[in-house]
Amino acid sequence: MDERPFIRMDDFLKLVGLVKSGGEAKYLIQHGQVTLNGEVETRRSKKLYAGDVVALGEYEATVELQD
Hints:
By secondary structure, this protein is an alpha+beta fold. It has a single domain (7-62), classed as Structural Genomics Hypothetical 15.5 Kd Protein In mrcA-pckA Intergenic Region, Chain A, CATH 3.10.290. It is built from two helices and six strands. A four-stranded antiparallel beta sheet has the order 3-2-5-6. Strands 1-4 form a two-stranded antiparallel ribbon.
């Protein structure tokens, strides 16, 4: 079982300001507008770990988490 710290995809998008609400995150993720490490990700509850790269349009953010 992976015990590294993580953040959910929808929470991360809100945290870094790429979306304004959970509803907006849900819509964009489910409609294939968000990529994770270069691949389309359609699960809003996908666990992200340090070093993962999330992109929405021209914007890109790298996950940085503390233990």
